[in-house]
Amino acid sequence: MRPLPALSALVLLASMTVAHAHAHLRESIPANGSAVTAPPSQVVLRFSEAARLTAAWIARNDAARQNLRPLPSRTAVQTTLRMPALAPGRYVVSWRALSADGHVVPGQIWFTVQAPGALPGAPPGGVGGPSPR
Ligand SMILES: [Cu+2]
Fold this sequence. Notes:
Layout: H1 5-19, E1 25-29, E2 34-36, E3 42-60, E4 66-67, E5 76-82, E6 89-99, E7 104-113
Parallel strand pairs: 2-7
Antiparallel strand pairs: 1-3, 3-4, 3-5, 3-6, 6-7
């Protein structure tokens, strides 16, 4: 029996169109680019559609990255990553997420943990030590 090339092409085209809507980050806590006064015990990621993290890591001030474990095993729109103890500094949290459509989508956010007593909005750690008062 001969396959129907035109129909096969149509089905392929339709599935490709659907596959375009893979999960991307909608929002996070802490928000991307934000500064927090207390180190967060967890990071919450909210995606545009259900996804499952296949890898996640954190790096401070461009230091070596540290894997975040355990990864949430569920496929969900919202996922929570437990944080290790975070000293003041600038952090990048990176991940790879497997979308429901089978695509793997990388993403990252960064945030700053301010030193205790730091002024809101002051640069983390300052440049060249504490400024004179
Ligand atoms: Cu996709």
